[in-house]
Amino acid sequence: MKIEHVALYVNDLEAARDFFAEYLGGRANNGYHNVKTGFRSYFIEFDGGARLEVMNKPGMTDAPKGLNRTGFVHVAFSVGSREGVDALTARLKEAGYEVVSGPRTTGDGYYESCVVVIEGNQIEITV
Protein backbone atom coordinates (compact mmCIF):
# COMPACT_ATOMS: atom_id res chain seq x y z
CA MET A 1 0.00 0.00 0.00
CA LYS A 2 1.16 3.56 -0.66
CA ILE A 3 -0.12 7.04 0.01
CA GLU A 4 -1.70 8.16 -3.27
CA HIS A 5 -1.80 11.88 -2.50
CA VAL A 6 -2.12 14.47 0.25
CA ALA A 7 -4.57 17.37 -0.06
CA LEU A 8 -4.36 20.95 1.17
CA TYR A 9 -7.17 23.52 1.19
CA VAL A 10 -5.91 27.03 0.40
CA ASN A 11 -7.41 30.45 -0.16
CA ASP A 12 -5.19 31.38 -3.11
CA LEU A 13 -5.16 28.33 -5.34
CA GLU A 14 -2.90 29.69 -8.07
CA ALA A 15 -0.34 31.02 -5.57
CA ALA A 16 -0.15 27.58 -3.94
CA ARG A 17 0.20 25.85 -7.31
CA ASP A 18 2.91 28.28 -8.36
CA PHE A 19 4.83 27.90 -5.08
CA PHE A 20 5.07 24.13 -5.34
CA ALA A 21 6.12 24.39 -8.99
CA GLU A 22 8.67 27.19 -8.56
CA TYR A 23 10.38 26.08 -5.37
CA LEU A 24 9.86 22.30 -5.27
CA GLY A 25 9.75 21.27 -8.93
CA GLY A 26 6.12 20.16 -8.92
CA ARG A 27 4.19 19.77 -12.16
CA ALA A 28 0.53 20.78 -12.00
CA ASN A 29 -2.28 19.42 -14.11
CA ASN A 30 -4.68 21.77 -15.89
CA GLY A 31 -6.96 21.94 -12.87
CA TYR A 32 -10.51 20.94 -12.11
CA HIS A 33 -13.53 23.17 -11.51
CA ASN A 34 -16.96 22.00 -10.38
CA VAL A 35 -19.21 24.86 -11.48
CA LYS A 36 -22.11 23.65 -9.28
CA THR A 37 -20.19 23.73 -6.00
CA GLY A 38 -17.39 26.17 -6.86
CA PHE A 39 -14.78 23.57 -5.86
CA ARG A 40 -11.47 23.95 -7.71
CA SER A 41 -8.25 21.95 -7.49
CA TYR A 42 -4.89 21.18 -9.01
CA PHE A 43 -2.95 17.94 -8.67
CA ILE A 44 0.77 18.61 -8.45
CA GLU A 45 3.12 15.70 -9.16
CA PHE A 46 6.70 15.48 -7.90
CA ASP A 47 9.65 13.30 -8.91
CA GLY A 48 9.12 9.77 -7.64
CA GLY A 49 5.35 9.92 -8.16
CA ALA A 50 4.23 11.71 -4.97
CA ARG A 51 1.24 13.99 -5.54
CA LEU A 52 -0.24 16.94 -3.69
CA GLU A 53 -3.74 18.22 -4.33
CA VAL A 54 -4.29 21.91 -3.63
CA MET A 55 -7.97 22.79 -3.37
CA ASN A 56 -10.33 25.70 -2.85
CA LYS A 57 -14.06 26.13 -2.44
CA PRO A 58 -16.39 28.91 -1.35
CA GLY A 59 -17.20 29.32 2.33
CA MET A 60 -14.07 27.77 3.83
CA THR A 61 -13.02 28.71 7.35
CA ASP A 62 -9.40 29.64 7.91
CA ALA A 63 -8.55 29.03 11.57
CA PRO A 64 -5.12 30.06 12.86
CA LYS A 65 -2.49 27.34 12.37
CA GLY A 66 -0.20 27.08 15.36
CA LEU A 67 3.01 25.15 14.72
CA ASN A 68 2.40 22.90 17.75
CA ARG A 69 -1.05 21.49 17.10
CA THR A 70 -2.73 18.18 16.52
CA GLY A 71 -3.35 16.98 12.98
CA PHE A 72 -1.08 17.05 9.97
CA VAL A 73 1.80 19.42 10.71
CA HIS A 74 4.04 19.39 7.66
CA VAL A 75 4.86 17.70 4.39
CA ALA A 76 8.54 16.80 3.93
CA PHE A 77 10.34 17.23 0.62
CA SER A 78 13.67 15.51 -0.03
CA VAL A 79 16.09 17.57 -2.07
CA GLY A 80 18.85 14.95 -2.13
CA SER A 81 21.72 16.62 -0.26
CA ARG A 82 22.67 18.82 2.67
CA GLU A 83 23.72 21.48 0.16
CA GLY A 84 20.26 21.27 -1.42
CA VAL A 85 18.62 21.77 1.98
CA ASP A 86 20.85 24.78 2.66
CA ALA A 87 20.27 26.32 -0.77
CA LEU A 88 16.47 25.92 -0.84
CA THR A 89 16.15 27.14 2.75
CA ALA A 90 18.19 30.24 1.91
CA ARG A 91 16.14 30.83 -1.25
CA LEU A 92 12.85 30.60 0.65
CA LYS A 93 14.13 32.87 3.41
CA GLU A 94 15.27 35.41 0.83
CA ALA A 95 11.79 35.26 -0.73
CA GLY A 96 10.28 36.22 2.65
CA TYR A 97 9.15 32.84 3.99
CA GLU A 98 9.65 32.18 7.71
CA VAL A 99 12.31 29.59 8.54
CA VAL A 100 11.24 28.14 11.90
CA SER A 101 14.12 25.69 12.34
CA GLY A 102 17.37 24.69 10.73
CA PRO A 103 19.03 23.82 8.62
CA ARG A 104 20.22 21.41 11.31
CA THR A 105 20.81 17.79 12.16
CA THR A 106 18.02 16.56 14.41
CA GLY A 107 18.43 14.20 17.33
CA ASP A 108 17.25 11.30 15.16
CA GLY A 109 19.81 12.08 12.46
CA TYR A 110 17.83 14.00 9.83
CA TYR A 111 19.37 17.05 8.20
CA GLU A 112 16.44 19.38 7.68
CA SER A 113 14.84 22.77 7.90
CA CYS A 114 11.22 23.72 8.50
CA VAL A 115 9.67 26.68 6.70
CA VAL A 116 6.21 28.26 6.97
CA VAL A 117 5.04 28.73 3.40
CA ILE A 118 1.52 28.73 1.99
CA GLU A 119 -1.04 30.41 4.28
CA GLY A 120 0.64 29.36 7.53
CA ASN A 121 1.34 25.77 6.49
CA GLN A 122 4.74 24.25 7.13
CA ILE A 123 7.01 22.22 4.90
CA GLU A 124 10.12 20.33 5.88
CA ILE A 125 13.10 20.28 3.56
CA THR A 126 15.36 17.29 4.08
CA VAL A 127 18.11 15.32 2.40
Structural overview:
This protein has 127 residues and is an alpha+beta fold. It has two domains: 6-56, Roll (2,3-Dihydroxybiphenyl 1,2-Dioxygenase, domain 1); 74-126, 2,3-Dihydroxybiphenyl 1,2-Dioxygenase, domain 1. 20% of the residues lie in helices and 35% in strands. Strands 1, 2, 3, 4 and 5 form a five-stranded mixed sheet that branches. Strands 6-9-8-7 form a four-stranded mixed sheet, with helices on one face. Strand 7 (98-105) and strand 8 (111-116) form a beta hairpin. It starts with 5 loop residues before the first strand and ends with a strand. The model has no long low-confidence stretch (mean pLDDT 95).
Could you give a quick summary of the protein structure above?
The two termini are 24 Å apart. It contains 2 helices and 9 strands.
Domain count: the total is: 2
Helix content, binned percent: 10-25%
Strand content: 25-35%
CATH topology of the largest domain: 2,3-Dihydroxybiphenyl 1,2-Dioxygenase, domain 1
Net shape: globular
Largest sheet composition: 5 strands, mixed
- Given as residue ranges, the uncertain stretches (5+ residues, pLDDT < 50) are none
State the end-to-end distance.
Answer: 24 Å
Judging by the overall fold, what is the CATH architecture of the largest domain?
Roll
Class per helix and strand makeup: alpha+beta
Count the strands?
A: 9
Mean pLDDT: 95
> According to CATH, what is the class of the largest domain?
Alpha Beta
- Gyration radius (Cα, Å) is 15 Å
CATH superfamily of the largest domain: 2,3-Dihydroxybiphenyl 1,2-Dioxygenase, domain 1
Give the number of helices: 2
Helix/strand order: EHEEEEEHEEE
